[in-house]
Amino acid sequence: MSASLLRRGLELLEPPGRAKVPPGLQRGRAGPRAAGAARRRKRAPEPGRSKATVKGRVVKSAIEEYHKKKPVNHLRENLQYMLKGRLVADKAVTEQVLAQNRGRKSKDQPPEKTEKKKPEGTVFTEEDFRKFEREYFGVP
């Protein structure tokens, strides 16, 4: 599932009074060339010292570097976020989300449900049949 479909589905599930995106999660740049300008600024060489020398260089601990780059497990925060809003979407919204994810090919369409016919049982018991037999055929 692409990020845009996921975003669209989450927008459908949001309560109507809430803002589109929380201010902490907004992404954006100052302009179209902001990333390029930042890259150029980074690339500018420092006139002070040569990086080829070892003098004044701090030795980095391999263990500290490993702990910095170790992946963080966000399961607990994600579960709290998901369980926080116990908003159950109505059936029309869920059908709309499912329809957006479904393809147009026949293999992507859900199979049509057919109602199973219940076997028709008799309303008469054996006792009723015996009584009928006695009345009409005279069998004792």
Give a structural overview:
By secondary structure, the protein is mainly α. It has one domain (3-137). Helix content is 44%, strand content 0%. The protein contains six helices and no strands. α1 runs antiparallel to α5 (91-101). The longest helix is centred in the last third of the chain and has 12 residues, at 126-137. The radius of gyration is 35 Å and the shape is elongated. The mean pLDDT is 77.
Residues in helix, %: 40-55%
- List the uncertain runs: none
> Major sheet: size, sense and barrel closure?
none
Give me the secondary-structure category: mainly alpha
Quick one: overall form? elongated
List strands and helices in order, with pairings.
Layout: H1 3-13, H2 34-43, H3 62-69, H4 75-84, H5 91-101, H6 126-137
Helix pairs in contact: 1-5
Question: Which short descriptors sum up this protein?
Answer:
6 helices
